[in-house]
Amino acid sequence: MQLFSCPFCGPRDETEFTFGGEAGKIRPEPAPEVSAEDWSKYLHRVGNPRGATSEIWVHQTCGEYFLMERDTVSHVVSTTNALRKS
Amino acid sequence: MQPPRLHKRYSALSLLREGLRGHSGWQQAWRSPEPKPAYDAIIIGGGGQGLATAYYLAKNHGMTKVAVIEKGWIGGGNTGRNTATIRSNYFYPESVALYDYSLKLYETLGRELNYNIMFSQRGVVTVAHSDAEMEIAARIVNAMQINGTDAELFSRTQVLEKAPLLNSGDEARYPIFGGVWQGRAGVARHDAVAWGYARAADARGVDIIQDCAVTGFLIEKGRCVGVETSKGEIRAEAVGIATAGNSGVMADMAGFTLPIKSYSLQAMVSEPVKPCLDTVVLYLGTGTYMFQSDKGEIVVGGGIDRIPSYAQRGNPPVQATVLSGMLEMFPSFAQLKMLRQWAGVVDVVPDSSPIIGPSPVPGLYLNCGWGTGGFKAIPAGGVVFAHLLATGEHHDISRPFDLDRFRTGRLVDEAAGSGIAH
């Protein structure tokens, strides 16, 4: 069982967390001017790095969304950072 | 002294003769050549899909200047890590056209390859646990029949006839209402599928190059003209990627992204026990499925891990979920000792259908996104991918699975359609 560190609650069981997507994706705007190609890229194309990765995760029990830097081969988590400003 | 004649063909007679002379006359099943500077086609990935593609390039298209490049050993990735089940119980016509074609090819594959793949058509039953699920089961059965494959809606009694040890008590968390039966489905020896294709492809002149990692692509004037490898540059007219969980790594090297995330999918086997289960059973409720291998081991699988991963090992929470599913389904299996647990890295696509077609880089082609279901599709995947590499054009069966579907929106959404868990 792996522990992930929620920025709000501290270390918790991995089963309490859900993968929310890759970090740094920005929804293209304004919608009427977005081409099908760009929309498809935003919706479906994803980085799938072998090694270091930066992802958005959510801690289901407290609802905290945060940034997690981890390694997809060793599963070592380097940092978790809140997305909130304060 | 005359050197003993080496056996090219496997048969009962050659087995008998070799048995009488100490098995000294078998020759290597395939060569281990050094890579040539150039080929007509290169396939990256020596799993079932890649080896089958090479075989059909030679057989169906007469191409023999073909190489399969494998960074490890053939069949050492997902081909040797899956739970060996072959079925075509999908919902959409596009999927059934692909997977049922594959099942048909599997039915004659052992004879065609002159290699015993131990294909046993013992049937798959997908068990439903409520009236509502029985309606979904009926819908899938109807769809399968309309799509031209065999399917039958089973009653509770019929399910229990097939698998009498299933939990039929009043206390069952997931009671048996009935299920979907596909009698032509079954299991095969997965290593033998890789080895059989390797041997047959090699016999037709294909070079199988193991222990050779692709480190980059040769791109000239925007077109892929070969690969850089740990054994030097190899050029080719057409390059195919058949690297399953590592497709994202290949795409990154070639400078594009795919709608794929890699996850670990784990499986496990018990100690061997006497015959007690002669079909494949899947519960919609637990997502756990199992069958008994020819050695007597109970082979158990379930859903993918919840964390994107390239680690070829599974996390304990999913292992616990799968095993608790098994205990719900077969209470008597609580006595089993589990022997081994392992995982493969699967390439999961949002609509749970494969991606077959040209990549964004001309000259470079994709055969990926099989997710948890690539093994059953090896023969058909090989045929359609060979067609693509040889002609540059889609086979009719592979056209709906083009990468373009994520732009047009014509997804083949088997994740929703056939209710597969992953």
TrEMBL record, chain A:
Question: By its UniProt entry, which Pfam families does this protein fall under?
Answer: SoxD (PF04267)
Taxonomic superkingdom: Bacteria
**Protein name according to UniProt:** Sarcosine oxidase subunit delta
Its organism's taxonomic lineage begins at: Bacteria, Pseudomonadati, Pseudomonadota, Alphaproteobacteria, Hyphomicrobiales
Automatic annotation (TrEMBL), chain B:
Task: Please name the InterPro entries in this protein's record.
Answer: FAD-dep_OxRdtase, FAD/NAD-bd_sf, Rhodanese-like_dom, SoxB
Return the PROSITE patterns for the record.
Answer: RHODANESE_3
In this chain the Rhodanese domain maps to 42-85
Where in or outside the cell it occurs: the entry states: Cytoplasm
User: What is the catalytic activity of this protein?
Assistant: sarcosine + (6S)-5,6,7,8-tetrahydrofolate + O2 = (6R)-5,10-methylene-5,6,7,8-tetrahydrofolate + glycine + H2O2; sarcosine + O2 + H2O = formaldehyde + glycine + H2O2
Broad enzyme group: oxidoreductase
The highest taxon in the source lineage is Bacteria
Q: Quote the protein name from its UniProt record.
A: Sarcosine oxidase subunit beta
Give the originating organism.
Tianweitania aestuarii
